[in-house]
Amino acid sequence: MGERIEVVDILRVAGPAFRTSRAGHLSLSELKVMSAIEHCRTAALGGHVEGCDDCGHLRVAYNYCRNRHCPRCQGAAARDWLAEREADLLPVGYFHVVFTLPAEIGVIAFQNKKAVYDLLFRSSTETMTRIAADPKHLGARIGLTAVLHTWGSAMTHHPHIHMIVPGGGLSPNGSRWVSSRPAFLLPVRVLGALFRRQFLEGLLALHGAGKLAFHGSLAHLAEPRAVARHLTPVRRKRWVVYAKPPFAGPEAVLAYLSRYTHRVAISSRRIIAFDGSTVTFRIKDYRQDGAARHRTLTLEAGEFIRRFLLHVLPRSFHRIRHYGFLTGPDRKAGLDRIRVLLGAPILPRSTAEEEDVPEPPPYRPTCPCCGGTTSVVGIFLRWRQPRGPPPPPTSSRECSP
User: Fold this and answer.
1) Residue 328 region, left (φ>0) first, then alpha (ψ -120 to 50), else beta?
2) What integer pLDDT is reported at residue 194 of this predicted model?
3) Nearest to 156 by CA among 303, 7, 8
4) Residue 229 — pLDDT band, cuts 50, 70, 90?
5) Rounded mean pLDDT of 333-358?
């Protein structure tokens, strides 16, 4: 194990014992995530051989697993995604808004991830668009990008939505741009009250339609009266909606998006130590102030893996979504019209959209020995996983020699 400890190191060492101890309690999705991360950048996934055109140096490069829960694979995915989003930025201030579910809802969300996470997206975005469209507030049609995070700093289950919202929107007839105040977008108390009502109405509708499942200690919530009692204290508390001051320009927006859009439950940079049985990593305790906010946490390796797997998303679930004028088939034309209204120059079309423009040459990494260019000189396929041996005969009769 190298100096830098990665999530894959912990899974490879402690993963087999964790699978054995949790046999029958791990979902197929969780097992696939573990397997993908463990085999990322190994011969099991195949790869290619790069040869230097100048000095002849050979280097083996293994394939990435490309699993969206793998910390190794998200850097390249984030760069590709950001290159596409850069053209969507407008010359206005951008706000960061966070919608958080109470703990009483979080336990229900964990057992009904797809339904409740979808409802979280729907309720939070409807809250933003309705309040923004109200003439008493902004009176405009806004656009926003929403990103789902399901973890807290200690990798506990903590579902919440991060939104990046331009500071303004289109007037109802689309003829002008309505700007927000420089350091104020929408009132958070009004947002929190509407968000609470929208979400709870949607949750009860899902319950009434039989689209929620309850297991273990939550099995009693299958009864309508029980779930109503469970939600009673939630109706009385204030739901947290947090709006940060606007970013300092489009570059700051991109820097933020690069950290948040493709983040997983924990990055390898936060892991400090792993001795084979325990894992120590850095966390941020938001209940503390000053230097006490930043501290370390040590977990048993199995508990670390359990918390990491809490955040495996349902298959085909989209955790990054766009709304308002940032979506739809006419999104690019709409953004160009907004730039005209703002008096900003229209961005040129990308080379992919231009006609008769040759594609750029493929990326060729440099040689680590001489700095020359390299070429792929060989490709090898992923290893085939052999089948296990047949089970032993059930009969106690011995076979003859």
Assistant:
1) left
2) 97
3) 303
4) very high
5) 71
10 Å CB burial of residue 233 (0-12, 13-18, 19+) is exposed
Residue 225 DSSP code: H
Please give the Cα distance from 69 to 206 (Å, whole number). Answer: 28
pLDDT, mean of residues 368-386: 75
Average pLDDT of the residues in 297-316: 95
Q: What distance in Å separates the CA atoms of residue 255 and residue 274, rounded to the nearest whole number? A: 30
What is the DSSP code (8-state) at residue 391?
P
Which backbone phi and psi does 125 adopt, to 5 degrees?
-70, -35
C-alpha–C-alpha distance, residues 44 and 66, integer Å? 14
Cα–Cα distance, 205 to 221 (Å, whole number)? 14
Phi, psi (deg, nearest 5) at residue 58: -110, 140
- How much is the CA Rg of the chain, to the nearest whole Å? 25
pTM comes to 0.85
Distance CA 181, CA 189 (A): 17
Which of 252, 254, 259 is closest to 74 using CA atoms? 259
**pLDDT above 70 (res 361):** no
What integer is the mean pLDDT of 12-18? Answer: 96
User: From start to end of 8-73, where are the E strands?
Assistant: 47-52, 58-62
Question: Cα–Cα distance between 15 and 35 in angstroms, integer?
Answer: 9
**Three-state SS at 150:** strand
Partners of 169 in the beta sheet?
178
Instruction: State the average pLDDT for the chain.
Output: 86
Q: Where are the alpha helices (DSSP H) in 176-223?
A: 188-208
Between 389 and 44, name the one with better pLDDT.
Answer: 44
Domain spans, the chain: 7-68+365-380, 89-265+312-342
